[in-house]
Amino acid sequence: MNSRPGNPTKLVIRSSTLLFSGVVLIQLFAAQIDAQRSTSRWQTLNGNAPLVIARGGFSGLFPDSSLAAYQFAMQASVAQVVLWCDVQLTKDEVGICFPDLNLANASNIQDVYSTRQKSYPVNGVTTQGWFPIDFSLTELQNVSLIRGILSRSERFDANGFTFSTIQDVTMQLLPKGFWLNIQHDAFYEQQNLSMSSFLLSVSRTVSIDFISSPEVNFFRKIVGRFGRNGPSFVFQFLRKEDFEPTMNRTYGSILSNLTFVKTFASGILVPKSYILPLDDKQYLRPHTSLVQDAHKAGLQVYVSGFANDVDIAYNYSFDPVSEYLSFVDNGDFSVDGVLSDFPITASATVDCFSHIGRNATKQVDFLVISKNGASGDYPGCTDVAYENAIKDGADVIDCSVQMSSDGIPFCLSSINLGDSTTVVQTLYSNRSTTVPEISSVAGIYTFSLTWPEIQNLTPAISNPFKVTYSMSRNPNERNSGKLISLSQFLDLANNSTSLSGVLISVENAVYLREKQGLDVVQAVLETLTETGYNNGTTTTKVMIQSTNSSVLVDFKKQSKYETVYKIEETIGNIRDSAIEDIKKFANAVVINKDSVFPNSESFLTEQTNVVERLKKSQLTVYVELFRNEFVSQPYDFFADATVEINTYIYGAGINGTITEFPFTAARYKRNRCLGRNPIPPYMLPVQPGGLLNIMTPQALPPAQAPNPVFIDADVTEPPLPPVIEKAPTPTPGTPSTIAEAPSGQTRLELSLLLSVFFLSLFYFCDQPYITSPLCL
Length: 776
Known about the structure:
With 776 residues, the protein is α/β, with parallel strands linked by helices. 28% of the residues lie in helices and 15% in strands. The strands form six sheets. A nine-stranded mixed beta sheet has the order 15-26-25-22-20-19-18-16-17. Strand 8, helix 9 and strand 9 form a beta-alpha-beta unit.
């Protein structure tokens, strides 16, 4: 590319090096990192680790095929990452990298050349757009690359990234592997442009490692023309029902004859569904035999369609690493390469998380604390959520204690039953009430039902992103499990051999004492005693958490359990006096993620010193809430929950994660790459503000007001009030409540009864043989 002075692409390439600390070590230590990589036997065709192929570079973040995307892919991936280029030919027969035949799909060409739209037949279908064959390379230098997928951030659209030629990519970046994809050879041939001639010409100055195409005739023209040391040829399969344009056969039918494919290609590139199909509910079906069949035919298998910010099978719990592992390390086979928009995740999967079992040595020490059990996969606070949290590797399981009307403490995420059960669909829906001390919105509260009534409720999985993003969690298990009492929860934890502790959360203690006559503190203490947690018969550590200092002070007076103070507010700093007050009653502190890394419109702006100050004062720091859904994470974490966890643990130094998906955090502990020196770039923490440094000034998100400083006045509370006995009242909805019902309702029911009585009396007295005094 002929870069003009001040070209934004050069600026971005320089700035992008700020995103990872120590990224300048990549080239110095590349050989050392490769030497440390796993030597376990891979089930690929040649026994080597699967290739990481960066589609258009790091196209999940930067505009596809921009030099910045390619540069960042090389910085954030394994040293042997292969750069993928979708080749298009310009009017002057220059090969450029661009993901689509229609330039309008990922550039602003329609704004620059608004009148130059044309129509061409593409695979027999008349298609309108802006085609590369109508523009010279010089003309295209006036066009900027932008995001091609609208759900991705638009913040880099204003950077002025320009089209890159094949020579730009190879000569400026010197990739270890280069893959050219020829998607529309037949189209170019119809326009009297020869893609095969272009490739042969460019191969004299550019090293090409792979060439792929979905067109059989393209390979017939090119096979044998590169010699023995030429690139590997890979036949690309599209959807099974699509027709291969030069043979008029479906790709599904070609798939049944792999020996034919072997005559012109050494590998195949297939969509994920060819290997791991999904049912109509988006759950995995058993894998096909394609990989084994292709390997038997001597064909390598590469898989396309990997992106962290798209829907994947529910089986993966929104975790892209789990998806990659199902293709590269499933015990039955391994594909030979993955084509990804987020090569950082593919790199970490192959190099850091493959071939490690659940009992592998832990490389980092922190607590994995569940949030309502494994509530990302099951209804929270149910037996199945807790059992799976233990199975997934949680160190600590949690119980948010609520109280029933008959004084039984049990686990539920909210005091409002409507938040986590289907109570509104039951006969108890008439028990809805408004409690200003808790919420301005009416609810059906736990203290309005007895424990036997609550036990019969159907739990419901939480779906925090369903309304805004149409993302639902594990629908097959949306109502699974049963609610359990605190006593049952403690027994479950005590019977586990892997748990180190339990976290018991207590809220709304003042209201329950004053208005409901329920002492949640005493109920918790008594249950702990009854289940053997205070007499030394169990080694399971007990932590008591609350947002109220008064609650923790009360527990401290009556027990020796560890106490955890939860700061609900997002804070930017914390005063020494507040820390000293907290230390009087708490051993640890819970803060939210934004109190560590604040963000503006989902871009990290800085790192606060809150964690550092708390830890310096000998307070343990836990952070919540970690979720796997990519929409819950700032863009800086590349839609990968593991990158986020790594940045908080390895970057900020927190002592524990509170998560709805404990499996993801527990797996991170066994991360092989954390035990290396140097740590590879795809396992370095991201630098807050790194992405902001790359944006143009006009594209920056608005500056945010600083978060408040937490002071001692925020900590201090009056002591808990005494329990005020509540006058016994009949349970709403029972026959004994007629007198308690609203007066209008009582009068209506009485009127109906009297009407029935008098109608019956009228019929009775109308009989000729009746002489009752009532009829006089």
